[in-house]
Each structure stands twice: as structure tokens, then as C-alpha cells.
Amino acid sequence: MKTSSSNGSGRCELCGLDLPRHHHTLSGEQRHHLFCCMGCKMVYSMLSEAAGAPDPAGFRETQLYRQCKAAGIIPSSADDLAEIHTSASPVADTATPSPDGQFGLPLVLYINGMWCPACAWVIEATVKKQPGVRNVTCNFATDQFRCEYDPVRTRPGTIAAAIDNLGYPAVDSAERSRDASRQRSDFIRLILSIFFSANVMMLSIALYSGFFTTIETDGVWKISVPIGVMATFVFFYGGWPIHKKGWYGLRAGKPGMEALILMGSSAAFLLSVVNLFQASLHLYFDTAAMLITLVLLGKLLENRAKTGIQKDLDTFFTLSPKKVRICSDAYPGGRYAGIGQLRKSDNFRLVAGEVSPADGTILSGNGRVDESAVTGEARPIGVKPGSLLKSGTRIVQGDLSVRADRVGPDSLLGQMIDTMNRALDQKIRLEGKTDRMLRFFVPAIAALAAVTVLGCLLSGLPIRDAIIRGVTVLVISCPCALGIAIPLARVAGIGSAAARGILIRNFSSFDNIGGVDAFILDKTGTLTTGNWSMVRMWVPDPNSADEMLSVAAGLEENADHPIAIEIRAAAEKKGIAPAAITETEHRENGVIGRWKGLPVRIGSRRFSVPDKQGVIPGHINQASPQEAVLSHIFMSVADRLAAVFSFGDQIRNTAGATIDELKKGARRIVLVSGDEQTVTRQVAAQLDIDEYHGAMKPGDKADVVAGLSRSGYVTAMVGDGVNDAPALAAADLSVALYSGYHMGKEAADITLMRGEPDQLLDFLHLARRVTKNILQNLWASSIYNICCIPLAIIGVFSPLVAATAMLLSSLSVTGNTLLFIRRDRGKSDRTKETGQ
Hints:
Layout: E1 2-5, E2 22-27, E3 32-35, H1 38-51, H2 63-70, H3 78-88, H4 91-94, E4 96-97, E5 103-111, H5 117-128, E6 133-139, E7 144-149, H6 156-164, E8 170-171, H7 173-176, H8 180-208, H9 217-238, H10 240-251, H11 257-277, H12 285-309, H13 311-317, E9 323-327, E10 335-338, E11 347-351, E12 359-364, E13 367-370, H14 372-375, E14 381-383, E15 388-389, E16 394-406, H15 412-425, H16 429-458, H17 463-476, H18 480-499, E17 502-504, H19 509-512, E18 518-522, H20 523-527, E19 533-538, H21 545-555, H22 562-573, E20 582-587, E21 590-595, E22 598-603, H23 605-608, E23 629-637, E24 640-649, H24 655-663, E25 668-672, H25 677-686, E26 691-693, H26 698-710, E27 715-719, H27 725-730, E28 733-737, E29 750-752, H28 758-793, H29 799-833
Parallel strand pairs: 18-25, 18-27, 25-26, 27-28, 28-29
Antiparallel strand pairs: 1-2, 2-3, 4-5, 5-7, 5-8, 6-7, 9-10, 9-11, 11-16, 12-15, 12-16, 13-14, 13-16, 17-29, 19-24, 20-21, 21-22, 22-23, 23-24
């Protein structure tokens, strides 16, 4: 097998897809045949053998080739191939306009070899200088690089090459899965460095004995030369990735941790080379070799721990399958195709063990599905024809035919991934200050090391001792622990929240929720289920009931509110057609129109009967034992009460416990609702909420939030539905309960995907632990730098001790975050086992 590189031009000789950067080659009699993957190469080989000759035209006449076409393995027509190339193009689906009117394509790359956030800063600064590139972000914690590029002015390969030249290999998501070879190479580099460094240390001990006994010059040479040779191997081979990144950082004027290691190890190595040729016993090859080896070892351990921290995110980001079985007239049982070929309204098939690639409606089949990856709901739920299926849902049982309603970035999973990526790229205020400090920290440490060397020389120390003390300052001052403290905690927090079905749009929410002392909660859909059902209808004249129901259905004919849907359903059930309504206009609290020339209104009591024309019977507010709460919609004809529609709603099972828990923190709890005051009072009484406001418009809810803010409260608005958007935007912290599979709540900092208020308590407890983890990490790294740098300056530490201390500092931050993750997963697993 041969694998060669390509710039992406050309197409696979079997399936016709564009060739990737690393494609596969099969040698023929006259030329090489190129394939996009090993599968196409193997199929081509089998077809050629069936044809009896490696002739590109001959194999197409074989029965095997026709069977491959029938199975959908090979595009069956030019139209199929055209469809593949159309769907594979990102321009139509993902191009976004820039402020100057030009279009940009999104690019996501995974960066290997970043050592600390300074690396991400160097990459960002370098790529921003490339023409045709904008919105550049590089995330150290997730190893992810994102930008938008103008395809007319640059190419992804050019951007990747610019990053590669800095010493950070950049790969796409497909090549990331083939990164095992690079990891194997890094592991071999570490093992060889450990082996030779151990021998350098052993021989150095023998050399140091010369300080106590006499060793002839010839003996010094016999020991020193092998030490120098092995140390040279470690310095150049083991230290190559470090030196390359350090050099490019220095050249770009943006030095990072690697620059400090480069300067420190180079100083020790060059001083040793000079002393070697002077047959001196003062060799520091062991310092240079062990410094590099300890850095390699520490980064290997840190990366493995980082992989554990990223586990929840990686699991979530890889939920979407790469292939889907699309059903058509030609392939009623489904034909596998790339996920990019799935379009809205396509039918696709799912069986047990598969994951839904799109939001859809089940057309046929019954089964059970697991939504835990998306909503955090641990128990599988039953589905049937007509049920809505969320993308990212795993089929536990059944064979389902599904119509795709939303695909790709428009699907729930696509929107969640986009939201999480944006949250991962955000930086809290404290992190911004830390990053700005780190940009000046490395030059400051280099200057401090130079001052240390100068001070030692002025105090009469030998030049070799002064240089070694400067090296110690360079090494021990490395700011990696400080730089990774918040990014790792961010990944851990967002990943843990996602595992609980809590979607984070703003990472600052973890810090902000701790200071909230006033929670404003919407009633409908938040504390109640919002699943309205019309339980009764009252009219002044019983003989006009059907006519009034027809008028109500006509007024609500084009509305999509749950109550409007219930009114239309009640009319349809009785076989009553909607009345012809003219001049329909939707207002904040209802709908107005004209029926038979008379003005008609439907909505809240204040809206429909502003002058209280008509007698409203007292019994309509009496709920039956099965109805936790009644809400009423009033309709008037010619400004007189014509009908009252009563709808039953249920208080959520977890609402009471949530309110009780929120009250424990001496927090102010306020209930707001668009329903009339009597209904709001009834719900408030059942949940023991003292402060409530009913009959509120969306703007009124925002005014309540703003009023509390002016009174000095830190506010959190918890709502459901687009009517709460103004209040969500006005609050210091906004929380939305997910109620469908479209992420329309752009104003919300947090979305509770399971739609239950007790998830707010889950987030409160998680936020406390994440904030605690961040503070622990920052304190540990700060104390390390404050204590160790002065000790290095006065000569208490040697370079080897400094390197060990530096790596232990970084590993302590990483280990603390990993410990948080493991404890958190344990709690989450125990919760799922108890079914809560």
C-alpha cells in the first residue's frame, strides 16, 4: 500500500469524490490509480480481479460492479456524482457574510503540541496576519483552532501550513483520528530521551567524583565525551519540538514557555561544550538533558490527563454519525451515504444502536430511544409514528423510518455544538487579565534571569555559577500552571454540564450564579408543564357554544401558541369549521378581528373585556382535583363577554423542591406570568411563593427584572418561550428551559435541555465546584511562582530541581481538574443509577 500527499485536487477513480490531502495509490500497468480511502482502493482491486484485467473501463462491465452500484457503494449515475459534489461544497451551506460584504467559509483545525495558552496566542497572532482570514480563535484547552477564510484569497492548506511552520501540526477532524502515529513518535522520543538522560546522569556522577579524588585529563575525556554525545542526542532530537516552537515564538516576538526552556537548556548545553574542550569537570550536560526529558515527560502526563478532562466534550462532539441510511424510491430499505448528503424532508432509516443525525418526525415504527447525551435524561423513552426525534438520540430498540426536519447546523445537536464551541472560546474577566499578564511575563522573566546573572557576576561568583543560576530562574518561572488554570476548568465545567443536559452559552455563568440573590421565574412552561388542555367552555347562552367555538377557532387560525392549537383541536373534534374573520391583528395579550362586521377579541380578561362588560361566573376559577391550575382565555363580541375557555395545566413535579432549595440561600423568589392574577396567585400559593405578578406583558416582566436590579439585587431570570426574551436579556443571568428542538433562546446564558427546574439546582451545585476548582488552581500556581522565583534567584534550587518543581506545578493544576472531573462523573453516575 502506498499513501501519498495531495493538495486536494483530483478525484477518486472509483467513487468520484475529491481526493483528500493523504490519499491512497494503486500501481497499474501504465499509471498509478488514485483513491480517496482504503475502502475504494480495495473495492477497485476486487472489481479489477473480477474483470480479469486492471483496465479502468473493463471492470465496469462486471456483475460485481453492478451489484456495488445497486448497493449504493458506488454512485450509480452522473446525477448521483453531481449531487455528491454539490453537497460536499461548503459554500452554499456554511458561507457567512463579513461586515465588508465578502463571504467567509468556516475552518476548524485541531492543533497538536500546544504546551500552554501562550502557544494559542502565538498561533492566533500569526494567522491573523494571513490575508483573507478573520474571526481567528485558538483554544488551548480543546486544542481547537477556528477561523473564517475568503476562498478567493487563501486556502485551508495555506492556513494549516502557517501553523505548521510555527511547530504546531494542524490537522482536520478526519486526520485527527489518524493521529496515533504522531503520538507513537512522541512516545519514542520520550523513551530515548529518558534512556540517554539516565546514562548521562550516571556518568556525570562518576565525573563529579573528580571533585573529591584526582582524575587524569585522559580519564576526564573518556567520561566527558560519551556524556556530551548522549546529551547532544537528547538536546537536538528530544528537544527538537521544544526548540522549534521556542525559536518561532522568539522570532515572532511572542515568546512562550518553549522560549524559556530553549534559552535555559541552550545556555546549559553551550556552557558544557565550552568546558568540555577545556577538560573541565564543570559540565552541565545532565542539566540540559534532564531539563528536556522532564519537560517531555511532564507534557505526556499532562496531555493524558487533559484527554480525560476532555472526555465529556469529545463524547458530545462525536455524537453525530458520519453516514446515514437515506431511503428513496430506488432504495426503499435505505442506502448509506455521507452525512452531508442528507437534506431536509429526506427520509432516513434508523435501527437499534444507531444515532439520529438530524431532528425529525417518526413516520413508521415503534421503539425506545436514549436522549441522555442531549438532555441528560437517564431513562429511555418510547416513541411511535408522529413522535419527534432529536438529533444525537441513540436508538435503543426498534426499526424507525424518520423524516428529516432539521439537518446539519440547523439541527438541535448542530446548534448545541455551535453554542458549546462559542462558550469554550469565551474568556472570563479574570482569564483576560491572566492572559495579558502572561504576554509580558516571559520577557520579564528573561530580563530577571539576565539581571540575576549580572548580579551574581558583580557579587564575585564564577561565570559558570552565575549562568546556572540564571538558567534556574528561567526554568522555574515558567507560567504554564497559571496559564492552564482557567482553560482546563472551563472545559471540565462545560463538559460536566453537558453530561447533565445543561447547555452553557456563557462560561461566566459559573461565576455569576454564585452572587445571584433574586430569582425571577416565569410560570407557564417553567414551573408548570405548559401542556394545556381545554377542560371546559362557558358561554352566556348555551345555544351559541358551537358558534362561539367557531369564532374562536377563526381568530386563532394562524397562531401557534399551545392554547390556540387546543382551541382549533377542540373545534375540529366537534366538526366545527373556523369562522371567517377579517382584519385579524395579533397583539401582545391576544388577537382582534371582525366577524360579521362586529369587533371580536380573544385573549386575557383585561384585553378582551376591558370595561368588564358581561357577567363572569365565579365557578370558572374552581379547578377539579385532576387540575393543578386553571388558566382562562376570554372572548368578546362587540365588547361584551361572549365566551370563557378554561385550560388545565400541571405544576412540574420538581418545582416545589426547587423553590424550597432556592429559598435556603436567603434569596428573593418572584413569580411572573402573563396569566391573570387569580391564576398566578393560585400557583404561588401551591409553591409557597410570597411575591407574584400576573397579567404581565413581556415588557412588564423585563421591568420587574430591571426594578430588582436597580434595588441592588443580582438577578437571574428563569423562563420558557420567546415571550420571556426581554426579561432574559435584562437579567444578570438568564436561564431558559428547553421546550422543543429548536434553540431559539439566544438571550439565555444557560439552557436546561431536560426542561425541568431542578436542573437549575444541578447547575448551582456544579458552579460552586467549578469556581472552587478555578480558585484552587490559581492559588496553587500563584503561590508556586511567588515562593519559587526568589529561592531560585538566591541559589537555593538547581536547574534540575527547578524543572521538577515547574512540572509538578503544572501537573498539580491538571491533576486537580482531573480529580474534579472524576468525582463529578461519580456523582453523575450515581444519580443516573437511582433514576433521578
